[in-house]
User: Which sequence fits this backbone?
């Protein structure tokens, strides 16, 4: 019984210590603010996702064409808009990177 | 030592409540150290739960009957393996298993993604919230650590549970059920942190897939258990407890497909949130059904007080998810529209609708007794005909869609192109269908359709592999097997998915054969008498009895022959357990290579004096394809799960801003 | 489009329930008086005596009472077909059939017993 109590006490102390650890390690930090993605970064992530989507769609179209699922005619028809979309997303990202670069590095 | 177990669980309770409250405050007020502290609390809760689990396992191993739970579920003669499995054979222990897996998964998920602080700040309180419920139940309502003066011997384990399935089936199911909590928590976390990107999907894709695989394997194990051990001749009885696992699995299947749409086209964001919440709530509902006895089922009849608590928790989960999704609706609106009803997106959508429709009809069937009781004051129930009808109505089109999907292009497929790609599978299907009708398989329309659609799907999948391998070979040369391996390695998700589809096809064929085309005969026999079924002659020769470790085994010696020549000898019978005062059914099965099925024998009403018995024989074609499907299923999932270094790098770069170093 | 599909699904559903009927009533022996006709599922606890042979013409005879509630009502059941191994006096069973002339005539093969619940507290064992 006392062994059980002792073990339980050890467990409790260990748990509390682990939970308090962030506060014990940094009793007086410069900033306690939980970082948040800035609007800029969110937009960038979304743009990157759109870019990846457009590129993946192109890749899949090529694959389907190569494996014979899509005819040459259909391929010619579909590849144009997809390439344009991919180019658009790449361009949007570059613009973002160009104008937003300074703001990102100086933020937070 | 029970005191240590109680203390450990009490600590777990304190830790998850802290994680919930502190985590919420930290996320709300953007407090970094508090968020880290909440994260640590969630991880620590796993540690304390492990201690509690270890206490129970030790008590089980050591026959510590001062633990009420140990006394209730084990006995001195119970072998060690089953003593350890008794951990989950009872209410309290199985709750602890659930908590152990939940805290384990949570700790792992939190630790793996500890640098994605933005999202994790909200994921932690959601995970903690779910854990709080289960720890609460374990500490205040249903504790495995109640102690009492130790009796001389325990009550033992029900004989029907003493088989290897007991070691595998419940843990597999739980790894699946509980696994669905992770994508749910990440989804809710994304909503709470107002994220509109796909990060949460990318982070939880493998979790969902793994949980779905475990749940599927768990169900197959359960079905096989029922088939060989309970032995009524079937593997699925639409029992509420069986449906309890099927429903979340169907919802998760729908979810796995629709997230692909979100990843590729950015559509269906709201639908995905709803699906992941549905899958999670159904997983809790599933365990509620199994435990509470609120719906009378072959498995449990007693009304348990746990039911009310679980219902309350499910209600909270539903209200929370629906409310949160509703609040974030503006954020989730996507600009992309479905371009064509004939496109791969559309087939995915149809697949989803059918899966959810099937899931909801099963849910309705399960709830029907409760609904009629509440509305009309009398209990009515539905049974096999109801479920079979909807399985056919929704399942057969689903089967066909599995074959159609890969053949249709994204965005918009021209009918001309479809005509070309459909030709070979369609011809295969028609040829198969006609051949089957000629051979007499028209006796069952659903069966015929299943086989015909199956041919379509099989041709479609084979074509995919052939086309892909051919293209790969023309690109980089090499042998056919080498090109195939490289093809799969470079497109793991796609071809892994096709392998999983193949396993579902096998499942469908196995189910169709063994249900639509099975033959059943039953006859009373005296020693020396025979019966005929599907070309086989079964002769009941004599009865034999022998004493086993804890049972008296009575077996009928049955000679099986075909066309005059001996095929095998079967020994169906019963085991009588004097201590537990129970009789178990021991079936005898012959795996027939001729139809990839089984010759299944059950001996009933055995009279030792007159040596008469009733022999029930079932011929179940293709049922072994069903079990084989399980292995293909796991293999396909593993291929899909296999990490892809290139993909990982690309995703890491994409989300670099998300990952905070300081 | 989604709305259309949902409507289609509901339509199938409604047609089915209209045609195939809305389930089978589940009753305890004390409720049977309200259902002198028609197919029902009878849920009850087996009380002795149990006589006869379910595979013989005369069938197996046993008596059921309510599981909870009115424990005074008794219903005679005659059953033909396979009897589950777990069947015995004191077990809770479900059987489908119709009440005829005071005796519940069961549909062959519809008798099933509840597995003793592994989640209920086990009855006290005399050691």
Assistant:
């Amino acid at each position: 019984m006392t062994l059980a109590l002792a073990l339980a006490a050890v467990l409790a102390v260990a748990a509390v210590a682990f939970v308090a650890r962030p506060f014990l390690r940094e009793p007086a930090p410069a900033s306690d603010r939980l970082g948040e993605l800035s609007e800029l970064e969110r937009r960038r992530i979304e743009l990157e996702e759109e870019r990846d989507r457009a590129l993946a769609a192109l890749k899949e179209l090529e694959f389907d064409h190569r494996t014979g699922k899509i005819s040459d005619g259909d391929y010619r028809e579909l590849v144009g808009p997809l390439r344009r979309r991919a180019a658009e997303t790449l361009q949007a990202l570059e613009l973002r990177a160009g104008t937003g670069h300074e703001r990102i590095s100086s933020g937070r | 030592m029970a005191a240590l177990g109680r203390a450990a669980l009490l600590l777990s309770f304190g830790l998850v409540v802290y994680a919930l409250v502190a985590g919420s405050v930290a996320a709300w007020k953007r407090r970094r150290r508090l968020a880290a502290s909440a994260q640590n609390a969630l991880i620590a809760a796993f540690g304390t739960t492990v201690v509690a689990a270890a206490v129970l396992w030790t008590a089980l191993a050591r026959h510590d009957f001062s633990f009420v739970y140990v006394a209730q579920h084990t006995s001195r003669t119970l072998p060690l393996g089953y003593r350890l499995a008794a951990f989950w054979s009872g209410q309290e222990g199985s709750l602890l298993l659930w908590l152990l897996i939940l805290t384990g998964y949570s700790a792992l998920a939190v630790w793996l993604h500890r640098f994605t602080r933005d999202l994790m700040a909200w994921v932690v309180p959601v995970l903690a919230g779910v854990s709080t419920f289960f720890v609460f139940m374990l500490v205040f309502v249903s504790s495995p650590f109640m102690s009492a003066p130790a009796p001389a011997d325990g009550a033992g384990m029900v004989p029907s549970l003493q088989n290897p399935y007991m070691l595998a089936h419940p843990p597999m199911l739980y790894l699946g059920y509980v696994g669905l909590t992770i994508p749910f928590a990440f989804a809710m976390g994304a909503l709470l942190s107002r994220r509109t990107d796909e990060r949460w999907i990318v982070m939880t894709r493998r979790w969902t897939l793994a949980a779905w695989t475990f749940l599927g394997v768990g169900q197959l194990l359960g079905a096989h258990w029922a088939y060989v051990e309970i032995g009524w001749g079937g593997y699925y009885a639409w029992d509420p407890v069986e449906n309890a696992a099927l429903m979340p699995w169907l919802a998760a299947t729908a979810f796995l497909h629709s997230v692909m749409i979100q990843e590729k086209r950015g559509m269906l964001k709201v639908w995905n949130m709803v699906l992941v919440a549905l899958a999670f709530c159904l997983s809790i509902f599933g365990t509620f059904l199994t435990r509470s006895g609120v719906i009378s089922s072959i498995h449990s009849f007693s009304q348990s007080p746990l039911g009310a608590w679980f219902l309350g928790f499910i209600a909270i989960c539903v209200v929370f998810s629906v409310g949160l999704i509703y609040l974030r609706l503006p954020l989730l609106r996507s600009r992309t529209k479905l371009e064509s009803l004939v496109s791969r997106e559309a087939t995915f959508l149809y697949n989803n609708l059918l899966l959810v429709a099937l899931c909801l009809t099963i849910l309705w069937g399960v709830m029907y007794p409760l609904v009629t009781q509440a509305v009309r004051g009398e209990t009515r129930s539905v049974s096999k005909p109801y479920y079979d009808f909807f399985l056919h109505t929704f399942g057969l089109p689903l089967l066909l869609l599995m074959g159609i999907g890969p053949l249709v292009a994204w965005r918009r497929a021209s009918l001309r192109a479809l005509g070309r790609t459909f030709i070979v599978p369609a011809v295969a299907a028609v040829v198969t269908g006609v051949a089957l009708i000629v051979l007499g398989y028209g006796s069952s329309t659903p069966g015929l359709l299943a086989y015909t659609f199956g041919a379509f799907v099989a041709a479609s999948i084979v074509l995919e592999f052939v086309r892909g391998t051919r293209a790969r070979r023309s690109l980089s040369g090499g042998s056919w097997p080498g090109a195939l391996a490289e093809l799969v390695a470079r497109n793991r998700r796609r071809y892994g998915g096709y392998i999983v589809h193949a396993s579902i096809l096998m499942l469908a064929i196995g189910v169709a054969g063994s249900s639509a085309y099975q033959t059943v005969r039953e006859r009373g026999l005296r020693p020396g008498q025979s019966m005929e079924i599907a070309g086989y002659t079964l002769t009941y020769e004599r009865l034999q009895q022998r004493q086993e470790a804890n049972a008296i085994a009575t077996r009928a010696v049955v000679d099986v022959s075909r066309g005059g020549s001996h095929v095998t000898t079967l020994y169906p019978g019963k085991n009588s357990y004097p201590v537990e005062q129970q009789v178990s059914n021991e079936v005898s099965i012959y795996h027939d290579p001729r139809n990839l099925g089984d010759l299944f024998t059950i001996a009933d009403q055995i009279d030792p004096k007159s040596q008469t018995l009733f022999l029930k024989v079932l011929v179940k074609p293709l049922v072994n394809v069903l079990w084989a499907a399980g292995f293909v299923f796991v293999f396909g999932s593993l291929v899909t799960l296999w990490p892809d270094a290139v993909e990982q790098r690309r995703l890491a770069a994409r989300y670099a801003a998300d990952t905070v170093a300081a | 489009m989604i709305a259309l599909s949902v409507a289609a699904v509901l339509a199938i559903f409604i047609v089915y329930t209209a045609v195939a009927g809305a389930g089978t009533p589940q009753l305890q022996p004390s409720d049977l008086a309200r259902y002198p006709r028609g197919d029902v599922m009878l849920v009850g606890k087996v009380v002795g005596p149990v006589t006869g042979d379910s595979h013989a013409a005369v069938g197996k005879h046993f008596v059921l009472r309510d599981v909870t509630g009115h424990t005074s009502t008794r219903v005679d059941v005659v059953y033909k077909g396979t009897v589950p191994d777990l069947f015995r006096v004191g077990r809770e069973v479900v059987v489908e059939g119709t009440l005829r002339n005071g005796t519940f005539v069961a549909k062959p093969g519809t008798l099933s017993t509840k597995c003793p619940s592994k989640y209920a507290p086990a009855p006290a064992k005399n050691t």
Q: What stands out?
A: Chain A is about 80% helix and 0% strand. Chain A touches chain B through 49 residues (CB under 8 Å). Residues 37-108 of chain A form one domain.
